[in-house]
Each structure stands twice: as C-alpha cells, then as structure tokens.
Amino acid sequence: MRRSRVGLSKWGFRQLAWVLICTVMLTACSSGSGGTPAASGGDAGSAPNEESASGGTTFENKELNIAVFEGGYGSEYWKAVIERFEADYPGVKVNMTSNPKIMDIIKPQLVAGNPPDFIYVSPDENTGTIKALVKEGALMELNDVFDGPALDSDRPLKDKLTDGLMAYMQPNGDGNIYYAPNYMSVLGMWYNKHLFETKGWEVPVTWEDFFALGEVAKAEGRALYTYQGIYPSYNESVFWPAVASAGGLEAMNKALSYEEGGFTQDAVKQVMGVFERMAQNDDVMKGTVALNHTQAQTEFLKGGALFIPNGSWFESEMADAPREEGFEFGFLGVPVFSEGDQAYVLSSFEAMYIPNKAKNPELAKEFLRYQYNDDIVQLNAEKSKGVMAVKGAVELAKDYIPASAYEAFKVYDEGALPMMVQWKQTPKSEVIINDELFNPLGDVMNKKMTADQWADKVEQASAKLRNLLNQS
Amino acid sequence: MKHRERNLFITACTLPALILFAVFALYPFGKAFVMAFYDWSGLSEHARYIGLNNFKTLWQDDIVWKALVNNLFLLLVVPVLTMGASMLFAALLTQRKIKGKKLYRTVFFFPNVLSIVVISVLWSFVYHPTFGILNSFLELIGLESWTRAWLGDSSTVLWAIAFPMIWQSIGYYMIIYIAAIEGVPTDMYEAASIDGASAFRQFRSLTFPLIWNVVRVTIVFFLIGVFNGSFAFIKVMTNAGPNHGSEVLMTYMYSQAFNNGNFGYAMAIGVFMLLITVGLALISEKLTERDSVEY
Questions:
Q1: How big is the CA angle at A420 (ends A414 and A423), to the nearest 5 degrees?
Q2: Contact call for A230 and B151, based on CB within 8 A
Q3: Which of A138, A178, B23, B174 has the fewest C-beta atoms under 10 angstroms from its C-beta?
Q4: Mean of the pLDDT values across residues B151-180?
Q5: The complex's ipTM?
Q6: Do residues A327 and A306 make contact, with C-beta atoms less than 8 angstroms apart?
Q7: DSSP string, B175-190
Q8: What is residue A15's predicted lDDT score, i.e. its pLDDT?
Q9: Distance, in angstroms, between A126 CA and closest chain B CA?
Q10: Where are the transmembrane segments (chain B) (predicted)?
Q11: How many CA atoms lie within 13 A of B295 on its CB side?
Q12: CATH number of the domain at B54-287, please?
C-alpha cells in the first residue's frame, strides 16, 4: 500500500517537475526578450529628402523621440505642440513618452547610450540625473540655437528670453549652454491675505517687522512661521534672497562657489541668525520639524502659522486641501534687514535638453527653437497654465494661471530683483551640499544647534568641495 | 544506471533555479562589488577605476559612521523587543486557556499583511505633533510636558521608528513561535505539571530549550529584516532627518546613488553593509551556539 503510493507520487512529481522546468525556462526567455527595448525608430534615418520645405528647412531624419516630465503642468501642452509641429513640418513624426517619473523611465536608455532626442524636466529633479549628465558632458551644447535667429524673427533667440536668465543656462559657468529654459516659478514666503486684511496687520517689510508679528500671532494662538519640516530645503527661497539682500549677489555667489569663508561671512551668518531667532522666540509652529510638505502646508492653510515658504504653484498644488474660512493666498517675497535694502525674490526654471547621443539632433534643435515661437508660447500658457521664461509671458498667461501666481510674478515689477541659485559644479563627491546646508535646520529649530555651529558645519562641507575644485 | 538517472534528474531540477539565481542575484552582486572600485555616475558607459578611493572616502565620511550607529541601535532594540513580545504572546496563546485565541492570532498578525508604506504613513499620523493620537493621549492624561515632535527630535526619532517596526513584525514571529511551541509533545507538559512545575518554570525549562533551534533561525531573520526593512520606514516617515538623525546605511546608499549620481561610492557603502551583515550573522551564530535539546 505504502510502496505503491510512493511510486505513484514519484511519477507525478517527475512530470510536474518537467512542467515546472519548462515553465521557468519559458518565463526566463520571454522576460529576457522583453528586457531589450523595442528599438523604436532607431533606424529611420533612411527617409528620403523631401522637396516640400517648411520654413526653408528639410530634415533627413524625420523621426523625433521626446521624453517629457508630466508634473504640475500636465502633458496636454506637449500633445498640442506635437500636433502643430507635425502639421508645420510635413512628414515629421514625433514620439512622446511622458511620465511623472520620466527620469526613471529613460535612465536605462541613457545608460545604454540610446537616449531620446529631447528631454524636458527640471534641472533639480530629484534623481540628480540631469546634474550627472552635465558632469558627464553628456548633454549637447546649445549655443548655436540661442545665438542663432528665432524661427519667427530675425533677432537671436536669446533675446526672447527673460532678462538675466542666460547666465544660468551654463551649469559649468564656462559659456557652454546646456539648458534651454521653459517654465518659470517664483518662490518666497506666503501669507493669508484675508487674515491680514481683517486683522489690519501690515505685511512685514523688514525682519524686525516680521518678528514683531510673532508676538501678535502668539496672542492669537498662531505661530509666526512654519516650513516643510522633513524637506528643510524649501527654506532656500527665504535663505538665499535674504543673503543676497544682506550682502549683495557677490556674497551669495561667494557661498555658492565654495570660496573660503563663504558660509562664515556676515551676510550668511546674519540670515542663519534669523532662523536661530525664530527658534529661540518659539516663533516656529510646534512640531514643524516632523511634518512633510503636505502636512505643513495644510497646517498653514488651516491657520497654524502666518508664513510659509513655497513657489508660485502653491495655490494649484493645494487646490483640494482644507483651509480656514476666507483663506486667500498672498505672496510676500522675503523681508529685508533694514528699510531701504534691496529686496530679492528667488525664481527657478525648468528646462529642456538634447543629449549628445541624440539620434536626430538637428530636428531636436528645430523642435527646441519652435518652443519659443510667440504663438507656441501662447499655446503653452493656455494648455499648461505655466509661465514660460520669455519676455511678456506673464501677461500672456494671466488668464490661465491662479491670481496668486500672477501676483507672485508681479513682485519683480514692484522693486524686488530676481535671482537664482546655482551651486558651482564640482567633481563627483560624497558631499550633497544642499542637504548639508539645510539639514541642520531641524537641529537649529530644536535649539540643539546655534547659528554659529550651523555656519561652521556648512563651511566644513564647503571646504571639502573647495579642495576638490582646487585639485582638478 | 539508476544512479545516473537520478543525478540527471537532480541536475535538471536545480539548474533553472541556479540560472535564475546566477543571473538575478550573483551577477548583480558581483557587479556591485566591482563597481565599488570605480568612479561611476550610474549613467554613462565610462567608469574610471579608482582603486580604494571610495573606501577611503567612506572611512572619513562622518555620515557613514552616524548611520552605522543608528543601524546598530535599530539592530539591537528592534529584535530584542520584538522577540520578547512575540515570544510572550506565543506562550500565552498556546499555554493558557484564553478565550478568542483565534481572534488574537489574526489581530496580532494583521499589521504584517499591511504594506510597509501604509504602516509608515499611518504611524506618521500617530506621531503628528498637533493632532496625532500619541500627543493627544498624553495631553488627555495630563502629561502635556511629554508631548513633542517625535519624528522631528533627534533624541526620539529612532525610538519612534523602531516602534512601528516592532509592531509590524510581532505577528509574524509570534506565528513562527506558536508553530514551534505546538510541536512540543504535550506529555512533557503533563509530566512537568505532575512534578509541580509552574507555568513560568515550564516555559523556561521545557518550551524555550525545545524551540531553541527555531529561535536561532529567527535571530538571523531579525538581523536581515531590520537591516533591510528599516529603509522604507525611514524614507516615508522622516526622509532620514532631522539632520541625519535617522540616517541608516541603506538610506545613505540610496541618496548617494540616486540623488547624488555617485554610484561607485554607493556601491562601496553597499559592500561595507554586506561585510557588516555577514559579520553580524556570524556573531549571532557564535553567540547562540548551544546544543539544542531534542525530543
């Protein structure tokens, strides 16, 4: 009895085993072939030269692969612009990949040396891929695009861009342009306009005004300031403009390029002192350090604190969040140290890039120029509700963006100067300098670190990078 | 003849697994080890051999040592408390006549089937400084001075992360211990109670020695589980903050590889972690070396 049962099960087992082996083999094979990307449009270069010239240019290779980040601005615009581009350039075919995690998706292609022809994403995207591509020299130099004429005028394309922006399109600071800017944002402190109006409070101009409000706020059971606790680098939109205002742009650039004493100079220490003072006065909303961005911003909307740093996307970002009655977004910018000081307000940009190994760089460059055509900028504002980094774009977008965002862009008309933050590129290092600068803020807010200790700590990290720069 | 057929069969059976293991475990493993000696961004096909430079950097990197200390803290606290609690529950649910045993087993096991990300979000609301249940409870019982931003204070953040980890894994180990305890023949307990041994005495002198082999295995599970599992909790709850207060080697490796484009260095941290886990496994093996009692 027992014997026969064993025999039977052995047979069954053997057959089963073979079935299993075959299945496993098959799966392995199929997953193997699935791993190799379907070479889409890699060899479209043999397209014949067509006579029908649009704008006097023809392109041998008529296939363009673009990869775009699908964030707050959506992908509607990209679909629309592709349609127009294909209509204006007969025979051209644009393949789009759009995704909120676009860099994760194209990373394998970048590593394999088979990148898309055109990429749109913020240079500060959180995978650090764009920065790494810059370091690798894997992005195409775009100087000819910007020095050359725009598609719809005879003037150089760079004349169309917002003033002062071109300097930031050269991440290595060597005159080589790798970034082509598109969307702009304005960042700074926000407050509840309705609350300030009903209480009759004045919007602070100087840091003294700001701290005076702290007492007023406490009497109301509110805190003065909060920020996106576990992501302390949101404070950059307060930190750097304040440094620029205290010591001028030179002071800021001294720090951003790791010069000796960059973080122990007066302008920087003064700003660090502001944060220390907030901590010492208990002006920061209780528990701020432990909150993520959504939690902190929701607390702000509910009236927990008077001010919070964020960008012009704030109103759209928090569209569905609960808020206190009558809440109205108001943009403050950043206070100055003494009345009459020059105020600065941070702006940031997102950008487009062409990889060095793009299969169709000529068409990609044409597509890039096309982005700055007047009617396309208009289309962009309409579809994406974003503000392009070209002159007059704010007015073009006025009807499509939230009133608070429009107001934020208007600070530049009211005397504040625009500025941007760009750390000097260094050779590869373990130091993540932006984290080194803002991570200690948690300890400062917990009163475990003084402004001086904070400055010394960042100075040390900065020194490491300075040494690397000197060695190379 | 028969022997050959059998060998062939065994080979055929093990080969697929071996191939999969080689392709998906050994190869990446070896590759990671090699890349630790290169300067590589993770993006280009050019990698520059730099010998031990990544390891030299690692040796001088304060954050690595801070992360290691945090790792060791979690490795000590989480296994000890989890083991204590799950053993206690297992003993209670097997030895005692408790009503609703099945219900308790399900309830204790429940956190284990939740996704770690869900648990982390859940607990970050438990610890929420203004409306979190923990601070609200402390206020309710008049311990207002104890309330704090649990995840934002470098002196409490590790405990605040350890607790959900313990909560999540108690059920799993409890089930393992229950299974082991139920394997102990009941006549031994009968004999023991005739001899007048108390329940505690029975546990100490009978149950524990008899399930020692299982406990040993779970200790290795603990070490690996805590080492690898802490990543998701920390990433969601604190993002390694405040100021590296909850940084562990895993999160640091991640940020070097994926936020800083410094893959070679990240791999060096990975190799360092590997050495530590292997070391810990060997140490735990040695420490727990003790003849298990057979029945």
A1: 160
A2: yes
A3: B23
A4: 92
A5: 0.74
A6: no
A7: HHHHHHHHTS-HHHHH
A8: 52
A9: 6
A10: 7-29, 72-94, 106-126, 157-180, 210-234, 263-283
A11: 17
A12: 1.10.3720.10
> What does the DSSP 8-state code read for residue A47?
P
How far is A234 from A211, CA to CA, in rounded Å?
20
Separation CA A133–CA B4 (nearest Å): 56
B156 touches chain A (CB under 8 A): no
Task: Work out the number of other CB atoms within 10 angstroms of the CB of residue B201.
Answer: 13
Residues in chain A with CB shorter than 8 Å from the CB of B57 are 430
Q: How confident is the model at residue B292 (pLDDT cuts 50, 70, 90)?
A: low
Note whether A332 and A212 are same-domain residues: yes
Q: Are residues A76 and A155 in the same domain?
A: yes
Instruction: Find the CATH number of the domain harbouring A447.
Output: 3.40.190.10
Q: Which of A297, A404, A414, A127 is nearest to B263 (CA)?
A: A127
Judging contacts by C-beta atoms under 8 Å, the chain A residues touching residue B242 are 230, 289-290, 439, 442-443, 446
- Cα distance between residue B252 and residue B240, in whole Å: 8
Residue A56 pLDDT level (bands cut at 50, 70, 90): low
Q: State the residue for tokens 């022997």.
A: B3
What is the reported pLDDT for A251?
94
Using the predicted structure, report yes or no on whether residue B19 has a pLDDT greater than 50. Answer: yes
CA distance B295 to B293: 7
* DSSP assignment letter at A73: T
pLDDT at A52 over 50: no
CB A232 within 8 A of CB A439: yes
Q: Check residues A331 and A13 and name the one with the higher pLDDT.
A: A331
A460 and A429 within one domain:
yes
Chain A residues with CB under 8 Å of B15 CB are 21
Residue A365 sits in which domain range?
63-185+348-414
Long-range contacts of A314-323 (CB under 8 A, 24+ apart): A314/A190, A314/A404, A314/A405, A315/A402, A315/A404, A315/A405, A316/A72, A316/A385, A316/A402, A316/A405, A317/A72, A321/A294, A321/A297, A322/A298
Q: Is A26 on the interface with B (CB under 8 A)?
A: no
